[in-house]
Amino acid sequence: MNRPKLGQLVIFLAMMFSAAAFGNPRPRQEPQAPANQNTGDQTKPKQSEEDFNFQEALRDFMAIGKAPDPKAVKRGQALYVPTCGFCHGSTARGGSSGPSLVRSVLVLHDQGTGKEITPVVRNGRADKGMPPFPQLKQDQVTDIAAFLLSLVQANANRNDYKILNIVTGDPTKGEADFKNRCTNCHSPSGDLAHIAKKFEPVALQSRFLYPKSEWYPGMPPPDPRESKTATIRLPTGPTYNGRVDKLDDFSITIIDASGEHHTWALDAEPKIAVEINDPLKAHFDMLPHWTDDNMHNMLAYLETLK
Description:
Among the domains are: 70-160, Cytochrome Bc1 Complex, Chain D, domain 2; 171-211 and 283-302; 229-279. Helix content is 39%, strand content 9%. The protein contains 12 helices and 5 strands.
């Protein structure tokens, strides 16, 4: 009979010890609440997906706080404008003699309760030219505080910002302006046919005011008609043509018809000759000459091209 080696015996004893010390544990017994005692889990209903309010969750995440009562805001605005608007502005962003209340530390600390602003409203600030308003009742001051809180929150929560209707111009005047400014390059029945179906008004306005000729990774493929191109003439004779991929104060990079990149330093000797062709240059040259009326009239006309 072969006797076990010492190493095998040690391993066997170690396994036996582990089984005895760390064997199958007993199932854990959860503490039971007394029969006559309600626990939080038994009484608190779980929130369903239907109950989830994204706007409230977003406000909590951005630490904006709960929105004030809309009725109190409306009452407060009706009181604020004739009482305070002549100094602080009708939107509380500053007026002829009063500072902005939207950024006021006192208003921020008040949080729409009226507790912080009441002494100032009632007593005024003679050293700063603010008269007292003792005639205002406490609930009226609280409503004004709610209105101010709504402005502070709107200033902080950009997600609630809504773009107003910007199609307010005269399309007839816009058409006449189009004929004077744009017909050398554009046609309402050609390249701009149905343009209003392709872009929302805000995007359409942006395209004729601030067009982009540069292309960056992640953008849609550039329209060849809007791409900035360059002709590079080297002192030694060769000439290169292509779409401008990068241009700054130090270098220029173009992509030729075969897709190959070429880069030159602009301050290198001997210097290269660079000719830039930007089909959108007329838009940039026109930008300083737009008036509000011209801009809105042009947009109103382009909105008819559907």
